[in-house]
Specification:
The complex is a heterodimer of chains A (296) and B (314).
Chain A: H1 5-10, H2 12-30, H3 32-49, H4 51-54, H5 86-122, H6 124-138, H7 142-153, H8 157-184, H9 187-194, H10 199-210, H11 212-235, H12 247-254, H13 263-290
Helix pairs in contact in A: 2-10, 2-13, 3-5, 3-13, 5-6, 5-8, 5-11, 5-13, 6-8, 7-8, 8-11, 9-10, 11-12, 11-13, 12-13
Chain B: H1 2-29, H2 34-39, H3 45-55, H4 61-73, H5 88-123, H6 128-142, H7 145-159, H8 172-201, H9 204-211, H10 216-253, H11 259-268, H12 272-300, H13 302-313
Classes of the chains: A mainly alpha (296), B mainly alpha (314).
Chain lengths: 296, 314
């Protein structure tokens, strides 16, 4: 293979992607739990997105004659205190919870990537200013920061996504900065500098693709932790508000009936745990597949 | 060691002042007029305007920031709550120790169970015990602690009636909250301990120790664990933030009047002085914990200690 510095500089992604991506997929396919994790997550996501088709009942239809039923043939997960079908609500709830996780991750990934690449690539005082600012943000515990942010932004779907995103920026920026510091010294970056590539081009075309794998690991774990945080926020009355069937909000509603109708707290919680578990399984497997140190 | 400690404590001051400014600015940006909230909608616009003037709400940002900083750090006055009209410092004095107790108990339980489990899994690597531990740990990481809290209440308070579900009192009131908070911590720490043990266990000095005929127990405890401790301590540090944040949620479930419920109620009733002061205290508690973690580093790793003593000689 003509794997010269010139070839790499000319077409860096193709060669890199070919090998790196294939290697990761191959490693992943050996890891049955990780494969199971990603399949489970995709299935959950698809089921929730298709809720309008799949859900057996209208998620907000109140039916007081059939209220607080335990799981039975008609209502697989039972009904809540207003007679709403819990299965339908859990399905619709996933649309909130999972998409909140994904969108907020995307926002903080984009902003974190920009900040992290600037800090890592330019170094010096730019790096210092950015990192110290992130230090200050991180000296508040994440949950507290999210709570304060959602006080500023207000509750609701979009605002919660924003609060979660801002909270996630320091982590993403730090990770990317570390990656860049690691990759920056490589010869292909030097080569790109030698043929006079612009800084933006070096960052987007050379450094980012090579920092791709740890970003994916962090992303899958990040979605998981954001789904948890989002549902905790809704649970304490910030975040998405009832009657929206967000999983945390459902639990917050159900909490009052814990003595009388314990089945109400069961299913939304299982839904959160299962989604988070699937993402963690995948992230774990992916990390093992990517980490040469763990290959034994 | 003492000088290192003092230096780290002094470094806390700028961090906490910076956090104060950040929190003040965030609260400054909150939509809604505190004067209107205080007068609860029945007052005339003139009354509201008068109150705004007396509260200094019409002043520019920097004037208000300066006043807030001097009130907080020079007069040690955190103001009064909008909703209860109580002095905030009096409330915090009662509440902060409860949050600290809960967080520290959770931390201790996490380390106490997480680290041995991780060691066990590392020794049994690839075998059934390891797989079971790691699968359980993965499930533990994935269960949201507020849901676990509800399940624990359901089992131990509602069904078995062994433990109280709400309020504060003796130590038994802290059992369920700490338990629901520590499961995630145990799981994360077990995972980290396992992986850093596995990294160390293959080193040459472990082989040397074994070939010298050191007993397996000593190899694991004295040679491997000591070297594996650094990433574990790092993790304990980063766990601390999660645990403090998690305690805030747990408090609201178990109706523990601590800092978490203080701040969350403050947010819900738009009681901004409460949120400001509460956040600053939580941040201070958190940062102080991080300093302790740093000092723990120095205590565990002679390399870090040596670095410091070299500096001192210079």
């Amino acid at each position: 293979m003509a794997d010269t510095v010139y070839e790499r500089a000319k077409n860096p992604e193709k060669i890199k992607k070919d090998t790196e991506f294939r290697r990761v997929v191959k490693q992943l396919s050996y890891n049955k739990l990780a494969t199971f994790g990603i399949i489970l997550f995709v299935v959950l996501l698809v089921i929730c997105l298709m809720a309008p088709i799949i859900a057996p009942y209208d998620y907000q239809a109140i039916d007081l004659r059939n209220k607080s039923q335990t799981p039975n043939a008609e209502h697989l997960f039972g009904t809540d205190n207003l007679g709403r079908d819990i299965l339908s609500r859990v399905l619709y709830g996933g649309r909130y919870s999972i998409t909140m996780g994904i969108f907020s991750l995307m926002v903080s990934l984009v902003l974190g990537t920009i900040l992290g690449s600037i800090a890592g690539y330019f170094g010096d005082w730019v790096d210092n200013i950015i990192m110290r600012a992130l230090d200050i943000i991180q000296s508040l515990p994440g949950m507290l920061l999210t709570i304060v942010l959602s006080a500023v932004l207000g509750s609701g779907y979009i605002n919660t996504i924003l609060a979660l995103s801002i909270n996630g920026i320091p982590g993403e920026a730090r990770m990317l900065r570390g990656q860049i510091l690691k990759v920056r010294g490589n010869e292909y970056v030097e080569a790109a500098q030698a043929i006079n590539c612009s800084k933006t081009r070096i960052i987007t075309q050379h450094i980012l693709p090579n920092s791709f794998s740890p970003m994916i690991v962090q992303a899958s774990m990040g979605i998981a932790s954001r789904i948890m945080t989002a549902s905790s926020l809704s649970f304490i009355g910030l975040g998405v508000q009832p009657p929206a069937p967000e999983w945390g909000a459902m639990l917050s509603d159900a909490r009052v009936y814990i003595r009388e109708y314990p089945h109400m707290i069961l299913f939304p919680g299982i839904a959160i745990a299962l989604t988070v578990l699937s993402l963690n399984l995948f992230g774990d497997g992916l990390r093992d597949a990517l980490d040469p140190k763990l290959k034994r | 060691m003492l000088r290192y400690f003092i230096k780290r404590i002094l470094l806390l001051i700028p961090i906490i002042v910076a956090v104060t400014i950040v929190v003040f600015t965030l609260m400054y940006l909150v939509p809604g007029d505190p004067a209107e909230i205080l007068l609860s909608g029945t007052a005339t616009p003139e009354d509201v305007e008068l109150l705004r003037e007396t509260m200094g709400l019409n002043d520019p940002y920097f004037v208000r920031l300066g006043r807030f900083l001097s009130d907080t750090y020079i007069h040690f006055d955190f103001g009064t709550s909008y909703s209860t009209n109580q002095d905030i410092w009096t409330s915090i004095k009662d509440r902060l120790p409860r949050t600290m107790k809960l967080s520290l108990a959770t931390m201790a339980l996490s380390a106490l169970f997480g680290i041995p489990l991780g060691i066990y899994a590392a020794i049994k690597q690839g075998r059934l015990g390891d797989n079971i531990c790691m699968l359980l740990a993965l499930v533990g990481v994935s269960i949201p602690n507020f849901w676990l809290a509800l399940l624990l209440i359901l089992l131990f308070s509602v069904n078995l009636g062994w433990l109280p579900a709400l309020g504060i009192g003796g130590i038994k009131y802290y059992v369920l909250p700490a338990l629901s908070g520590c499961v995630g911590g145990i799981a994360t720490e077990a995972r980290q301990t396992r992986s850093s043990m596995l990294e160390v266990i293959r080193s040459d000095y472990i082989i040397t120790a074994r070939s010298k005929g050191v007993s397996e127990f000593d190899v694991i405890m004295k040679h491997a664990l000591k070297n594996a401790m650094i990433p574990i301590i790092t993790l304990i540090g980063s766990q601390f933030g999660f645990i403090v944040g998690g305690s805030m949620i747990t408090e609201t479930i178990f109706s523990i009047p601590g800092m978490g419920s203080f701040i969350i109620n403050g947010v819900n009733s738009r009681d901004y002085p409460v949120v400001q002061a509460g956040s600053i205290f939580i941040a201070a508690f958190f940062s102080f914990g991080m300093v302790l973690v740093d000092i723990l580093y120095a205590a565990v790793d002679p390399r870090i200690k040596a670095q410091y003593t070299k500096k001192k000689r210079r």
